[in-house]
């Protein structure tokens, strides 16, 4: 029987027990049911839609798993103009979507003032803004928060410091942690999250990821599979599996009951029903890709990415159908994290 109090805990989870859950299929049905019980109690049946604009695929980093890595010379690079980004945000708002996500590689050609301008203009559309720009300066985070940016998403990918260092040249898990905790201090809704199936990753490593989002009290938790990209050093590795991703989503829901957790596009890439299953296992956010063509196919984090050639209306309608098929409700609000006090179930 699943020992619920070892993962649903006010202070900290039992890392060894979480690793055990991840290493066996014995508790899968109980885990699924418990995650849905927690979701029902703390975030209900509403699913929030966030429209993503992937506005630049340039990146100064050289992460071993990522198709946007600096040394990938096969990728056609692009940068959207500020006006193109604003026009896309207007389109997202016109669909009734209440959050615009501005995402890019770590591209410092967009200055502090450029991002500030985007925030000022997009806030006029009466939407929430999520920034996902990688590691920028602490001063920039402060400026953008004061201008009205609501959320900052920066996945930590793995909470194993040695694995993190091996995958991220010239970076460290401690640096990533310092950025995430500073973003929390500034009052951003702060998003972390991990990749499942990285080379050398163990169930204990994945349990550390759950423990870290609990420690951070992450407002958003993005979990998806590692999908090997052919133009990276990890091209021949195996990649992550759907079931482990779903279990990680369920564990994240239980560990941080009020967090907003997306059913990621990567889930839908490894399985046609991946996003629907993610919602059924505890996720409550879905993020349609609203990057315009011809740019969209070149934001190539991993191969085979779904929703690359669909038109915008089709994408917006598709995610609504996914939500309904999962037996959930399309939210029409801004999707801020609920702040109810966590009580025992």
Automatic annotation (TrEMBL):
One of its GO terms (biological process) is sulfur compound biosynthetic process. Residues 45-264 form the Radical SAM core domain. It holds the Pfam family BATS. CDD domains: Radical_SAM. [4Fe-4S] cluster binds at residues 59, 63, 66. The keyword Nuclease does not apply. InterPro entries: Aldolase_TIM, BATS_dom, Elp3/MiaA/NifB-like_rSAM, FeFe-hyd_HydE_rSAM, HydE/PylB-like, rSAM, rSAM_sf. This is Iron-only hydrogenase maturation protein HydE. It comes from Pseudothermotoga thermarum DSM 5069.
């Amino acid at each position: 029987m699943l020992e619920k109090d070892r993962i649903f805990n006010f202070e900290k989870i039992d890392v060894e027990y979480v690793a055990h859950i991840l290493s066996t299929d014995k508790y899968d049905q109980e885990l699924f049911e418990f995650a849905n019980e927690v979701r029902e109690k703390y975030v209900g049946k509403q699913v929030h839609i966030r429209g993503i604009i992937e506005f630049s695929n340039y990146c100064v980093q050289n992460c071993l798993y990522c198709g946007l890595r600096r040394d990938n010379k096969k990728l056609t690079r692009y940068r959207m103009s500020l006006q193109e980004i604003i026009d896309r945000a207007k389109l997202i708002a016109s669909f009734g979507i209440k959050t615009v996500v501005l995402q890019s590689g770590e591209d410092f050609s967009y200055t502090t003032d450029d991002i500030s301008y985007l925030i000022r203009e997009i806030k006029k559309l009466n939407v929430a803004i999520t920034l996902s720009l990688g590691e920028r300066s602490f001063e920039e985070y402060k400026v953008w928060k004061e201008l009205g940016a609501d959320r900052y998403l920066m996945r930590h990918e793995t909470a194993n410091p040695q694995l993190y260092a091996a995958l991220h040249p010239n970076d460290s898990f401690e640096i990533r942690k310092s950025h995430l905790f500073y973003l929390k201090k500034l009052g951003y809704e702060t998003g972390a999250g991990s990749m499942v199936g990285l080379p050398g990753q163990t169930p204990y490593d994945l349990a550390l990821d759950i423990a870290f989002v609990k420690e951070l009290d992450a407002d958003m938790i993005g979990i998806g599979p590692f999908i090997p990209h052919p133009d990276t050093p990890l091209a021949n590795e195996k990649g992550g599996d759907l079931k482990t991703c779903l279990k990680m989503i369920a564990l994240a829901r239980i560990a941080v009951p009020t967090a907003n957790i997306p059913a990621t596009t990567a889930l839908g890439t490894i399985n046609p029903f991946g996003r629907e299953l993610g919602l059924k296992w505890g996720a409550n956010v879905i993020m349609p890709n609203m990057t315009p063509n011809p740019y969209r196919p070149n934001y190539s984090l991993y191969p085979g990415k779904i929703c690359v050639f669909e038109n915008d209306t089709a994408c917006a309608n598709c995610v609504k159908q996914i939500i309904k098929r999962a037996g959930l409700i399309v939210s029409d609000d801004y999707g801020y994290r609920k702040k109810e006090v966590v009580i025992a179930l």
